User: What shape does this take?
Amino acid sequence: MKIERIAFRFQKDEMQVLMRLLGIEALPGVETGAAADEERALQGLIDDGIVQAVGTETMLVDRAVSLTLLNAAAHECCAMVESERARMVLFRGKLFDVIVNTNEDMSSLCPVREWGQACRQFLQEAARMQAVRFAFMEKGTDLNWEDAPQDGLTEILRQKLSLYSGRED
Assistant: This one.
């Protein structure tokens, strides 16, 4: 069996609970705020086997999910595209790369082993989502959005992503 993609999908408030449990204050492009119903979100994560309660104050998060989120949080740089209804972020992580897709209700995390594959996937999905703006950001810098051109966005994204292809894997 060959698996081409793995993705974890969470409701927005579940993602916020996971980030809080893992001590992640913020991820660029991933909106956080007051969770709509933190207790319900936590219970949903427990029911799905993503979080396990150990005692009254300790929570264990699934290893694959925690590794994916923590790797995204430790990103070296990221690329973002946004449409009117969704946002996608490609994090260049220390161990592997992570694509996060978010909309009003859901977030999905997709770990990707190789940078070239992550870039191809990011570019394909960016073309489909009809982006209205995009941004590139290195860790420790400010986020500056640019309006997406009607034509040529894929080539602009490809050129900017190529600047990060020289990292030692």
Remarks:
- The chain is about 35% helix and 30% strand.
- The chain has a mean pLDDT of 88.
- Residues 20 and 26 are 9 Å apart (CA to CA).
